[in-house]
Specification:
It is a single chain. The radius of gyration is 14 Å and the shape is globular. A seven-stranded antiparallel sheet has the order 2-1-5-6-7-4-3. By secondary structure, the chain is of the alpha+beta class.
């Protein structure tokens, strides 16, 4: 499990947007802005989206080798940045959705109910960051 250092942990708890990069079926990158929360206890980034989104479809698709899908999540604020890389999965369970929504509301704002909402869980295994955060 990836553990962020104190500087990185502070940065991922500040209120910023990030970009999520997943891979389309043809292997090209799909980059979208997202809001996310960091679960330090599990080393995972959580995002919500609709189950019909391209992000969700990409997160369900295994690599041609059969490996689990991978993604990169990058938060930038001026010259500060942090990228988390890892495997990504879709969780449609009501418990996971409720937890992600509650976390989102604490960091950003209240979400309207959405029966299509699912959770994207990025299990980080690599972090790259601005030099001062190393």
């Amino acid at each position: 499990m990836l553990r962020l250092n104190p500087e990185q942990l502070v940065f991922v708890t500040e209120r910023h947007l990030a970009t999520l990069t997943t891979l389309r079926a043809d292997g090209s990158p799909h980059v979208t802005p997202v809001r996310f929360t960091w679960d330090a206890a599990r080393g995972v980034a959580l995002m919500t989206t609709q189950r019909t989104s391209a992000k969700a479809a990409n997160a369900r698709r295994r690599a041609p080798s059969g490996a689990p899908p991978r993604a990169a999540l990058c938060q930038v604020d001026g010259g500060r940045w942090l990228t988390l890389e890892g495997t990504v999965e879709v969780d449609e369970s009501p418990e996971a959705v409720a937890d992600a929504v509650a976390r989102h509301e604490r960091r950003y704002h209240r979400l309207e109910p959405d029966p299509l909402r699912v959770v994207l869980r990025l299990v980080a295994d690599r972090a790259m960051a601005s030099t001062y955060m190393d």
